[in-house]
Structure formats: structure tokens, C-alpha cells
Amino acid sequence: MKVTGIRTLRIKGGSFIVKVETDAGIHGLGESGIRFWGASIERAVEGLSELVVGQDPFGTERLWQRMFRGSFFPADGVYSCAISAIDIALWDIKGKALGMPVHKLLGGPVRDKVVCYPHCQGPTTEALVENCVSKVEDGWKFVRWGQPETSGRFEARGEARLEPVESMRLAVEQMGQVREAVGPDVQICFDVHTRLDTAHVIAMCKDLEPFKPFFIEDPLRSENPGSYRTLARQVRLPIAAGEQWSSKWRFREVIEEELVSYARIDLCNVGGLTEALKITHWCETHYIDIAPHNPLGPVSAAACVALCMASTNVGVCEMPKQPGTFDTDLFPTQVEWLDGYSFSNDRPGLGVEIDEAVAESRADSGHGWPPTLRRNDGAFTNW
After folding, report:
1. pLDDT tens digits for 79-109?
2. Which residues touch 146 (CB under 8 Å, ≥6 apart)?
3. Active site residue 293
4. Does residue 374 lie in a domain region?
5. What is the pTM of this model?
6. Structural domain of 223
7. DSSP character for 370?
8. Cα torsion angle, 337, 148, 232, 74, sign
9. How many CB atoms lie within 10 A of CB 170?
10. Greatest Cα pair distance in the chain
11. pLDDT tens for residues 19-34?
12. Domain contains 185
């Protein structure tokens, strides 16, 4: 079997799907992780196709090495996203060709199901609490939301304010009310989203300790993983990080020095299943659990669940919406979900298919940028 072609499907709403086709009539689906770089990633996929078309799709490790190192300079950012999508699609092909779900190719299931957390939200603290309670009533065992804006919420002109000290106070208020509303058994994940500096994060985490969050996510910017040394010495809450790191090498310091409790591996950004599996096993040697970053669609979700089904060191998996309740016209088959858990069934490959006619009707050629988040003095801060 040989790869005969690679197609990209950029879809309104943010999905960037890659379809790898073979001469055996078997195709695989992958997904790319940085929605706002779609045009650049599309060109990267086109370039990488020169290395992949004509090759055996079962050679995932060889193809990964060729794509990552093939131009002398190691791949990063845009190219890592493109590699991720192609690699995931190749694993999907392997599973379909063998008539096996991908998690069985990764070593077989070590669990029956994967606990997941949804995205909770609300324009006010009261609305956030109501949304969290609603998720718990729907069966979720976790709730999660992010560092709150202090005005605007991106509603006017795509811009909002986040003044650190005000946002810190609001975050403590929100977590206190959510904890009281959902009780002690529901786990809370809180995403700082790299919006604060080190001093602010340390101070806020001390105030959040009484509410016993499951983890504090992305408390710092990602460019310098070594900065987690300072944080780890002074914060007593579990730290989760890694969604912006695009290879195993970016994870090196925080794994080897055990600076995080949860590795937020993004399979659609880090280099696909081939690279994510290596990072996962590396984390296992340091008793670090994975908490896959999955803010995307059903293809990403299926890849994350497959990895978690076959890995012993799993904390929780991100699942923004309940599978099977959204985009069902575009993705008529998705991973399974029941009472806060997702799981892979025995469908070959990833177990996800796309309706290409719907995808074409929702084709998106735009570029786009995320909203702007500023402090009260007008300084730009991380979205």
C-alpha cells in the first residue's frame, strides 16, 4: 500500500482537517492544531506531501523523522502542526488497514474509558456557576474555565480588558462559588491561559489552595520552560502545562526536573501520535500524568482518547463539548461519551469519518486572528 495524495480541508469554525489517501482505497484523517495559521499550515502540508506521497503509510516513525529533520533545520510551529495532522492520518490508515482501532495499535487498552472535562463559561460569576452545575448534572465529573477578563468579554470590537490584580480576585471568587455549588467530589481545572506573570500566579495560587483544584493550567508563557522552576518552588497546587510545545525537546526540562504534574500534550501540535506516545512514556518514568490538550474537533478528540486508552499515566482529557452533540452533519461518526467519560469503540482506525460534501460547503479560506486582550494601561497581553 502506498500514499497517493494528501488533501487539506479548512472548515469554517476553525477545523483544519488533512485527508491522506492510498492506492488501496483506504484514507486517514488528521487534524492540525493552530487554527489561526491555516494558510501557512496548508502550504506546509503541501511541501511535506513531497516526502510522503508514494511511501508506505505503515512507516510512521520513518516518515516522522523524514518530515521533522528532512530540511536540516528541525521542524517547529507551522511545520509541526502539519506533521501532526499527517501523522495522525497515517495512524488512522494503519488501523483501518488492519481492521483495528488505533488504541490497540498503541499497545492496547489499559482502561475502559477516559475521564474528561468540558469547557464551562458564563458572562458573570453567577452564570459561570450555573453552567458548571449544569455540566455536573449532565454527568461530567470535572468542570473547567479560564482566567477571567475584567471587562468587555470580547463582545465589543473583539477586544476585552484583563487587569491582573482584578482578574486574580475574580478568579478566587469564582472558584470559591463553584466549589460550594458543585461540592467536594467534582474536580476543578483552572486555565490561567498564560495571561499572568510569575508573581501574580504565585499570589493567586496561594489564595486558590483552599478550593483544592485538580490543576492550574498554563500558569506561565511557554517560550521558556525553565521558568517553571521558579513556579514549582513556590506553588503548592498541581501544575499543568505543555499545549504550546511542539516537540519532545520542548518538554525536556519540565519532565526531567519534574516541574509539572500534568503534561498538556497537544497531539495536533506536538507532532501527532508518534511524538505524543514518546512524551507520554517519558512522563511515565517521572510519575507525570498526561492531560491531552484537545480544544478542536472530533478527529483531535479521537486521537487523544486513543492515546489515553492505551496509556497508564492519564489524569484527564480535555473534551470541550460532549461528543455526538455537535457537528454531526460534518462528522457523522465520533468517539463515544457516557457520564463524563469518553471511550473508543471497535471501529477500525480513529473511528471518525467526515462528510466531504458538508466540508466543502463550509470551506474557509480566511486567515483570521484571535481577539485582543489588553490591560487597563493599554498594554497587550496573552489571549
Report:
1. 999 999 999 999 999 999 999 999 999 999 9
2. 190, 191, 192, 193
3. yes
4. no
5. 0.96
6. 104-348
7. P
8. positive
9. 17
10. 60
11. 999 999 999 999 998 8
12. yes
Domain identity same for 150 and 247: yes
What is the structure's pLDDT at 13?
Answer: 81
117 and 131 both lie in a single domain: yes
In-domain check, residue 364: no
User: Grid coordinates 482502561 are at which residue?
Assistant: 111
Catalytic-labelled residue, pool 103, 286, 293, 367: 293
**Final residue of a structural domain among 66, 100, 134:** 100
124, 152, 155, 276, 368 from 158: Cα distances, Å: 18, 9, 6, 34, 12
Domain count, the chain: 2
Tell me which of 70, 100, 130 is where a domain ends. Answer: 100
Rounded-to-5 percentages of helix, strand, coil across the chain: 40, 20, 40
pLDDT reported for residue 180: 98
Domain-located, residue 22: yes
Q: Residue 191 in contact with residue 144, Cβ under 8 Å?
A: yes
Same domain, 109 and 215: yes
Residues 90, 184 within the same domain: no
Q: What cell was used for 7?
A: 488533501
In this structure, what are the phi and psi dihedrals at residue 102, rounded to the nearest 5 degrees?
-60, -35
With 60 as the cut, is the pLDDT of residue 224 above it? yes
E strand map for the chain: 3-11, 15-22, 27-31, 114-117, 142-146, 151-156, 159-161, 187-191, 215-217, 239-241, 262-263, 289-290, 317-318, 336-338, 341-343, 372-374, 380-381
Compute the distance between CA of residue 145 and CA of residue 127 in angstroms, rounded to an integer. Answer: 12
Which of these is catalytic: 119, 193, 200, 286?
A: 193
Q: Do the beta carbons of residue 1 and residue 72 sit within 8 Å?
A: no
User: Do residue 67 and residue 112 come from a single domain?
Assistant: no
pLDDT bin (cut points 50, 70, 90) of residue 157 is low
